[in-house]
């Protein structure tokens, strides 16, 4: 089979998946971007209004609050989920029974429904019967007891632990797979050169999985910017929009206020912000890589 036949075979194999992706992802994104230029309630004729929806978005303080909260989520994910998952992967990448059990326990939140996770953390944060305030009371730290999800000043930060806990298992499995794919010959050569322990980790293992870490960062950014279900279950964007995210802002504008054109403009804005942040992260990663060469 020559190279041309190989390309044709690969193209035919990928074509069904590409068609499904285009139908359920690309086409809705383009359709949503199109309706962002209209005033439409979801029923009846859509009225073309140009950039008025986008002008309203950038002038809406709720949008900037939601964008700020999304940035907080992105930073918490990148600097919380990635380092924690990487540290756990280094500790648990072997195949002993205890390590396999711990990996399964850490991955468990990925199997659970987001509704279950949100309800569990609601009970943890409950001001009267929550385990967090109970522990603080038991330890004599009554002054630390707070209305975790009702205080507008701390509610967004109270959502960070469940966010990290929910997805750290995914990146743990990704990093374990990357570490296990490093050839044993490389480890043997490093051992012969006297590189062991922390030195081998910093000089050999981490550089070998750099591209995997970059992919994980992209997943973190894109996942954080479209976060919705966990926040909606726990706070619905409140109190007073203190935990509003771009996705909840879009949902409320579309399905509560019935402003489908405005909601479409918000969803397009989410895509643009995602591309900008992902592009910036990749540019920084490439700059760092070039400086190390």
UniProtKB/TrEMBL annotation:
SUPFAM superfamilies: MetI-like. The chain crosses the membrane at residues 12-34, 71-92, 104-124, 154-176, 260-285. It holds the Pfam family BPD_transp_1. Residues 67-281 form the ABC transmembrane type-1 domain. InterPro entries: ABC_transporter_permease, MetI-like, MetI-like_sf. It is a multi-pass membrane protein. Its main location: membrane. The keyword RNA-binding does not apply. This is Carbohydrate ABC transporter permease. Keywords: Cell membrane, Membrane, Transmembrane, Transmembrane helix, Transport. PROSITE patterns: ABC_TM1. Belongs to the binding-protein-dependent transport system permease family. It is found in: Cell membrane. The lineage of its organism: Bacteria, Bacillati, Bacillota, Bacilli, Bacillales.
């Amino acid at each position: 089979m020559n190279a041309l036949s190989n390309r044709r075979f690969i193209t035919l194999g990928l074509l069904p998946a590409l068609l499904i992706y285009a139908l359920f992802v690309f086409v809705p994104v383009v359709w949503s971007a199109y309706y962002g230029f209209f005033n439409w309630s979801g029923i009846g004729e859509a009225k073309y209004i140009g950039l008025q929806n986008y002008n309203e978005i950038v002038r809406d303080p709720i949008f900037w609050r939601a964008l700020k909260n999304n940035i907080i989520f992105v930073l918490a994910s990148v600097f919380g989920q990635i380092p924690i998952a990487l540290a756990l992967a280094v500790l648990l990448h072997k195949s002993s029974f205890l390590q396999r059990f711990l990996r399964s326990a850490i991955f468990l939140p990925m199997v659970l429904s987001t509704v279950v996770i949100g309800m569990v953390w609601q009970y943890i944060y409950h001001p009267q019967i929550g385990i967090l305030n109970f522990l603080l009371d038991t330890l004599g730290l009554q002054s630390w007891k707070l209305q975790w999800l009702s205080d507008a000043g701390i509610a967004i930060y109270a959502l960070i632990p469940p966010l990290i806990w929910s997805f750290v298992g995914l990146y743990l499995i990704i990093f374990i797979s990357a570490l296990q794919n490093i050839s044993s010959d490389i480890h043997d050569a490093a051992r012969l050169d006297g590189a062991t322990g922390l030195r081998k980790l910093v000089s050999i293992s981490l550089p070998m999985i750099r591209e995997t870490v970059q992919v994980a960062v992209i997943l973190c950014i894109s996942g954080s910017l479209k976060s919705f279900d966990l926040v909606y279950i726990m706070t619905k964007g409140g109190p007073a929009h203190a935990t509003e995210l771009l996705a909840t802002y879009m949902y409320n504008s579309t399905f509560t206020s019935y402003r489908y054109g405005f909601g479409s403009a918000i969803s397009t804005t989410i895509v643009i912000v995602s591309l900008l942040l992902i592009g910036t992260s990749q540019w920084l990663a490439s700059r760092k890589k070039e400086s190390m060469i």
